[in-house]
Amino acid sequence: MDSFSNQVKTAMNNITNGINSSIVKSTEAAFNKSVQVTPAPPTPSGQEYQRTGRLRFGWNVSKNLGSSTSPSKGLYGMPTMKPLTFNIDKDIYVKIYNNVPYAYFVDQGKGQGQTPTKMLWQGYIAFKDKFYKEINKL
């Protein structure tokens, strides 16, 4: 009976480790996709200001951070993007967020002639696709 019990424990540990690995890989895929689709075009000639890539470098991924991580209001009261949050368990979650003050406007396409980039939505799709692929390998 002890050998059967050990086999069950081993199988459960393997499944848990596989799920945890799937979550990590999927979160990496979501983060990478959000960064990849973030616009960072070169500065057009004749433009007064220099584009810095600040928005692309503003992405963060964190585990179990409190509400102070993502401000409720942006600079000068501008709205901020809500973080993409994956609740893994009651007390375990992962957030992908960008605190650059104008990230919300770029994401929603609020600038003149801009189309919405939906950076976090594309990250969510990447997470979901990667997670399903990883889980099916178990």
Tell me briefly what this model is.
It contains 4 helices and 3 strands; from the N terminus they run ααβββαα.
Topology:
Layout: H1 2-36, H2 54-57, E1 59-63, E2 84-89, E3 92-98, H3 103-108, H4 119-137
Antiparallel strand pairs: 1-3, 2-3
Task: Describe the model.
- It is a single chain.
- The chain is an alpha+beta fold.
- It has one domain (2-37, 52-137).
- The protein has four helices and three strands.
- Strands 1-3-2 form a three-stranded antiparallel beta sheet.
What's the number of helices? 4
Determine the strand fraction and express it as a percent band: 5-15%
Distance between the termini: 26 Å
Backbone shape:
elongated
Chain-averaged pLDDT? 80
Our count of domains comes out at: 1
Task: Indicate the low-confidence ranges by residue numbers.
Answer: 67-72
For the largest beta sheet, what order do the strands appear in spatially?
1-3-2
Count of extended strands: 3
Element-level helix/strand string: HHEEEHH
Rg of Cα set: 19 Å
Biggest β-sheet: count, sense, barrel? 3 strands, antiparallel
Structural class, from secondary structure content? alpha+beta
The helical percent reads 40-55%
